[in-house]
Specification:
It is built from 11 helices and 28 strands. By secondary structure, it is an alpha/beta fold. The chain folds into 2 domains: about 260 residues, Spore Coat Polysaccharide Biosynthesis Protein SpsA, Chain A (Alpha-Beta Complex); about 110 residues, Hexapeptide repeat proteins (UDP N-Acetylglucosamine Acyltransferase, domain 1). The strands form 7 sheets. It has a 7-stranded mixed beta sheet with strand order 5-4-1-6-11-8-12. A 5-stranded parallel beta sheet has the order 14-17-20-23-26, with no helix packed on it. Strands 15-18-21-24-27 form a 5-stranded parallel beta sheet, with no helix packed on it. A hairpin with a 3-residue loop joins strand 2 and strand 3. It is globular. It starts with a strand and ends with a helix.
């Protein structure tokens, strides 16, 4: 697919992940202990032979830029093509991505690539885009979008777009998952089309003034364009809420999910860090957990994800939790269904517990203790009584 531009369009709505994305874009959220959300789509593109990749990001992107470096971990650090990053500036891409594409139209004009693949970052999967483009050409579509038929969408993939298709695989309508059906064709927000068509779409959106987002233009013109659907059958997660983020990390504790996502034939790459192996001290008890390098474990860890540099002291119990980089759980503390963001310290003998459906987030740079937790519980109990 070296005749294709890969565009990672970071237009995700972060309203339901605010506790985790207040100081970072969703694309740079840590997952699986050592990876970031953006690693999956970026690796999928490079594994498919795409050598020209542009990331259109929003503000507060320092952590993302630090993670991407020059693209070396994904073998896209080169003079020709390679990785390019474009900021949206003051325009929120949730509502308008067309103007930023227009401001960088030269990138597409000068690329001389026949096809353009546009993806979001928050759809997590391991996919071979070569199969997608073969299907697209064979079907003679103007646009082909990827979807997955997902069961049990009553509580998952909420607010995601749902595709209606005819017997020939052509998209006839686009709706939204509101959790009322048992299954749905979830739009994975991956679109392949000719670059000339993509450029025409940008100009048409600007001239007409009706559409401010490319995907809305496609959805609104399915009667004029031949828009087909390509079915993906592998594992799929969508990180569009704190609960989905938590559930996806817990899914990674299942062997079949890890084998699907981290397929050795299509590796997922990330920025490496020179940290030592994790230290399991005498008396540590660790069961069914993913532990990144650089951790120091002396307490009990069950069914949890621990990022680089996490510390669990003796006597502490961590169960069904996510500990992000350099977080510390002091002796005697007990955590269940908690997400502890980077650099936080849970003090000795603190007891923090939450529901699996509503995991509690200890936000980055927030000092947390029993008093804060008790005040929060009192507030929630009062709200329920009202």
């Amino acid at each position: 697919m070296n005749n294709c531009i890969g565009i990672i369009n970071l237009d995700e709505n972060e309203q339901r992940t605010t506790e985790l994305t207040r100081r970072r874009p969703l694309a740079s959220l840590p997952i699986a202990g050592r990876y970031r959300v953006v690693d999956f789509v970026l690796s999928n593109m490079t594994n498919s032979g795409i050598e020209a990749i542009g990331i259109f990001t929003k503000n507060k992107s320092r952590s993302l830029m630090d993670h991407l470096t020059n693209g070396r971990p994904w073998d896209i650090h080169r003079k020709k093509d390679g990785l390019k990053v474009f900021n949206f500036g003051d325009i929120d891409p949730v509502h308008d991505d067309v103007h930023n594409f227009l401001e960088n139209i030269d990138y597409f004009d000068h690329s001389k690539k026949e096809y353009t693949l546009i993806c979001s970052s928050y759809m997590i999967c391991n996919i071979n885009y070569n199969e997608l483009i073969k299907y697209h050409i064979a079907q003679g579509n103007d646009v082909t979008t990827v979807y997955k038929n997902v069961k049990h969408v009553e509580d998952n993939f909420i607010d995601c777009q749902v595709l209606n298709l005819d017997d020939n695989g052509r998209i006839t309508g686009v709706g939204e998952n509101v959790g009322l059906k048992n299954s749905a064709n979830i739009n994975m927000e991956m679109y392949i089309m000719k670059t000339d068509l993509f450029i025409d779409m940008i100009y048409e959106c600007i001239r007409g003034g009706r559409y401010k987002k490319i995907k809305n233009y496609i959805n609104g013109n399915i009667d004029k364009l031949k828009v087909g659907g390509y079915e993906f059958k592998g594992y799929l997660a969508c990180i569009n809420s704190t609960k989905e983020y938590f559930d996806f990390n817990m899914d990674l504790l299942k062997k079949e999910v890890r084998e699907d996502l981290f397929n050795p034939e299509r590796s997922i790459y990330t920025k490496t860090k020179d940290t030592p192996p994790s230290l399991f001290r005498e008396g540590a008890e660790v069961n069914n957990s993913l532990v990144a390098n650089g951790c120091i474990l002396s307490g009990t860890v069950r069914n949890s994800i621990l990022a680089r540099g996490a510390v669990v002291e003796a006597g502490a119990i961590v169960e069904d939790c996510i500990l992000l980089q350099d977080s510390v759980v002091k002796s005697g503390a007990v955590l269940k269904n908690i997400i502890v963001d980077k650099n936080n310290v849970i003090k000795s003998n603190e007891k923090l517990s939450a529901s699996r459906n509503y995991p509690l987030v200890i936000e980055k740079s927030i000092k947390w203790d029993d008093k804060h937790y008790k005040n929060l519980l009192a507030y929630l109990e009062g709200a329920n009584k009202e």
